[in-house]
């Protein structure tokens, strides 16, 4: 692949910010424990007082994919991504009182939309948030949360998962197709979810 094309795609997909003191840490749903472990580290470092994992499960599976749990430490039977992440967070010392619940979302856009609804209901205003996500999912996750928190600063603090990194994604067929799918989904999301009107409300 052309080197400029690789750089342009890498810069677009693999967002990364330095963490700064924020109001909340968001975690979009998956079975990858490392992003919740990263969120726990940030919580203990004092970057936020609340952590909000989000997710029921992917509609593709119709259930939480317990078989995809990537660390024997957390193996169990979970009904939702939220329940799984809550367990991971608490195993890493995050108190239950600091964990906010969103357990209905089935995709990245719903992660953001339903989290925003829960926080609005609770009267919690978000001026700045940290988003802990898989590295190759960073741009789509960011765009989703940026849409539903338009007045907040969203800082992306990702974690490499599934062997997909910004330095090597284009060297293996599987990771190449994962990243290309993310490129496609970024456009698809903003077409399908009617966000043009939302962005200019």
What does it look like?
Helices cover 42% and strands 7% of the residues. The protein has seven helices and four strands, in the order αβαβααβαβαα. The protein has helices spanning 3-13, 33-44, 81-91, 108-122, 138-148, 173-192, 195-199, and strands at residues 24-27, 51-53, 128-131, 153-156. The chain has a four-stranded parallel sheet, with helices on both faces. The longest helix has 20 residues, at 173-192.
- The strand count comes to 4
Major sheet description: 4 strands, parallel
Structural classification = alpha/beta
Distance between the termini: 40 Å
CATH structural architecture = 3-Layer(aba) Sandwich
CATH class: Alpha Beta
For this entry, what is the oligomeric state of its chains? single chain
Reported by name, the CATH topology is: Rossmann fold
Number of helices: 7
Mean pLDDT: 94
| Domain unit count | 1
Q: What pattern of helices and strands is seen along the backbone? A: HEHEHHEHEHH
Estimate the strand proportion: 5-15%
Q: What global shape is seen? A: globular
Name the CATH homologous superfamily: HUPs
- Give me the side-by-side strand order of the main sheet: 2-1-3-4
Low-confidence stretches: none
- Round the Cα radius of gyration to an integer and report it: 16 Å
Give the proportion of residues in helices: 40-55%
Task: Please render the helix and strand layout as text.
Blueprint (H helix, E strand, L loop, with lengths): L2 H11 L10 E4 L5 H12 L6 E3 L27 H11 L16 H15 L5 E4 L6 H11 L4 E4 L16 H20 L2 H5 L2
Parallel strand pairs: 1-2, 1-3, 3-4
């Amino acid at each position: 692949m052309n080197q400029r094309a690789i750089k342009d795609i890498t810069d677009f997909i693999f967002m990364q910010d330095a963490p700064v003191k924020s109001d909340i840490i968001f975690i979009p749903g998956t079975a990858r424990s490392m992003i919740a472990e990263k969120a726990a580290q940030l919580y203990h470092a004092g970057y936020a007082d609340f952590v909000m994992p989000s997710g029921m499960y992917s509609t593709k599976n119709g259930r939480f994919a317990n078989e995809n749990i990537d660390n024997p430490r957390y193996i169990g039977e979970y009904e939702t991504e939220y329940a799984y992440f809550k367990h991971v967070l608490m195993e890493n010392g995050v108190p239950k009182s600091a964990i906010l619940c969103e357990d209905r979302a089935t995709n990245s856009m719903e992660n953001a939309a339903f989290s925003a609804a829960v926080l609005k209901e609770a009267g919690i205003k978000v001026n700045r948030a940290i988003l802990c996500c898989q590295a190759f999912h960073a741009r789509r996750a960011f765009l989703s949360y940026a849409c539903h928190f338009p007045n907040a600063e969203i800082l992306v603090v990702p974690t490499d998962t599934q062997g997909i990194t910004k330095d090597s994604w284009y060297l293996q067929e599987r990771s190449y197709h994962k990243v290309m799918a993310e490129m496609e989904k970024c456009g698809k999301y903003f077409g399908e979810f009617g966000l043009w009107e939302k962005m200019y409300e």
